[in-house]
Amino acid sequence: DSIEMECLLLAIKDNKSIFQLDLWRNSISDEGVKIISDIITHNKIIRHLNLWENEILVKNVSKLYDSLRTTQTLKAISISNNQENQQSIIKSICRGILENNSIEKIELRGPDISEVNINFLSIGLNTNLSVQILLLDDVPITGNGIKVLSDALKVNRTIHYLDISNCQINDKDTISLSEALKINNSLRKLLDADG
Q1: Partners of residue 162 on adjacent β-strands
Q2: pTM for the whole structure
Q3: Between the chain's N and C termini, which has fewer beta carbons within 10 Å?
């Protein structure tokens, strides 16, 4: 129930011991998104936020974007399979993350992540200096998406762990990725279960 979730989030807001907020598979109302945004902005303990499989609505995503953009304490965020208007939510969240230079780990997983969002994320990685771990497993990255990601890997020197397993990358796309990996010397672990 969204009222119960709001009560829980309000209780967490001023908590000084919880460092990981795992809100996996909840129904988060607009008020809940506002509270999460306040938690990200004001609680200096939370380091990891998991928003997997929630029903986040678009109405308050701009507040979430602002808090993600300005937080200096959040280090990791996990996003996947949010129902209504998934793509615009992911884009806003990615925008906030990429404008922030303290977030070190991004998990964008699942087949619901669009090529547009992968392109947006990849372009942002050209200038982001904090993301070290990028988990994109099960995201269908093909064609232009893999090209834009490959171009970002040619420039980005902070990512040292990249998971692109089960991303439906074909032989042609592998060539583009191979060219990037010849240039990128900062990547230490590449996970690709496709082949």
Answers
A1: 134, 190
A2: 0.88
A3: C
Report whether 116 contacts 170 (CB < 8 A): no
Bridge partners, residue 189, by sequence: 161
Cβ neighbour number for residue 24 with a 10 Å cutoff: 12
91 neighbors 117 (Cβ within 8 angstroms): yes
Angle between helix 144-155 and helix 115-124 axes, rounded to 10 deg: 10
pLDDT digits (tens, 9 = 90+) for 6-20: 888 888 888 889 999
pLDDT at 58 over 80: no
Distance CA 110, CA 165 (A): 11
Whether residue 195 has pLDDT greater than 50:
no
Given a cut of 60, whether residue 132 has pLDDT beyond it is yes
Judge contact between 80 and 107, C-beta under 8 A.
yes
Question: What interhelical angle do 86-98 and 115-124 show, nearest 10?
Answer: 10
